[in-house]
Amino acid sequence: MINVAILGAGIGREHLAAFRELRDRFRVVAVVDQDLARIEEIRGGDEFAAYNDIAQALSDPNVAVVDICLPPPLHSEVTLEALNAGKHVICEKPLATSLADVDLISKTARRSDRQVFPVFQYRWGPSLAQLRYLMAQGLTGRMQVAALETHWSRGAEYYSVPWRGTWAGERGGAVLGHAIHNHDLLTHIAGEVASLSAMIATRVNDIETEDCATISFAMSSGALASSSITLGAAGDETRIRFVFEHLTATSGSAPYAPGSQPWTFTARDENLQSKIDQAVAATPFEAVGFQGFFTEVALAIAGEPNNAVRLQDGAISIALVTAIYHSARTGQRVALQLRPDHELYKGWLP
Predict the structure, then answer these.
(1) What is the pTM of this model?
(2) Residue 333: its pLDDT value, please?
(3) Three-class SS string for the chain?
(4) Regions of the chain short of the pLDDT cut 50
């Protein structure tokens, strides 16, 4: 049984709901929020300590894992504090807001012999399990192109929270706070990004940060990908298409759990379709979203075989954000990997 303290009762309520579904693995022993009333709103009859100070959770000997669900500027700082307190860390996106902070987290994790799990729950769900199974069976062939759409709606109500829409409060806009999940899916399925070009704009809301973007990626494999992002859509929709040598995989439009809806897997050669359909039908079931994510975290902490998101995955996501902002500001195509002497290595704030 793994004892968890959740820091933040906002998105933390969704984490709590997933932990409840995994009671054989996890026990939430504490929730921290400056507003204790918010904790009671999500308690739902569960027995756990309610703290209004992070230090209380970090000093609690019953806590093995700290689950960080705080505003972005606090993520790296609290991750470091938790690691130094001897806790494993689950951290909502973004893991950090500079590559320099990622380096410091990596060093601290090694020194404390604790693990860090950046939250990328989009990877889980029956449809994405089917895609990975098709890849493992050799039925997809090489990836040719990919197209990602993060077309969501965010307006005045969303940005009424004072820290949102500001560089100081969020450290970024739609690239950092919204499309980061789809970009993780891209590298999860298609591998490393070799280079990218990006344009960003603020066209929808009266905010400091970007709410629209378009990005083109050249993958190390030779595949090409595009990402279209807006917070000015009529509703919240996420669409993903991976075009492989032998088949095209197309998602539904579920915004926050693309693996939850059925995908279509269409063979380029119709003679291959039956094999694809059989493989899809034979794919073992996989839980969606946070439940799938936390299942793998539990296996990793127990030292069992797992597919947990790792610290390196979080580092890749921060490198992509850094490169996107650099490209958008300079008009240059940016090559990955970024070295410590890069001008945005210590942060991308304007």
Answers:
(1) 0.96
(2) 98
(3) CEEEEEECCCCHHHHHHHHHCCCCCEEEEEEECCCHHHHHHHHCCCCCEEECCHHHHHCCCCCCEEEECCCHHHHHHHHHHHHHCCCEEEECCCCCCCHHHHHHHHHHHHHHCCCEEECCHHHCCHHHHHHHHHHHCCCCCCEEEEEEEEEEECCCCHHHCCCCCCHHHHCCCHHHHCCHHHHHHHHHHHCCEEEEEEEEECCCCCCCCCCEEEEEEEECCCCEEEEEEECEEEEEEEEEEEEECCEEEECCCCCCCCCCCCCEEEECCHHHHHHHHHHHHHCCCCCCHHHHHHHHHHHHHCCCCCCCCCHHHHHHHHHHHHHHHHHHHHCCCEECCCCCCCCCCCCCCC
(4) none
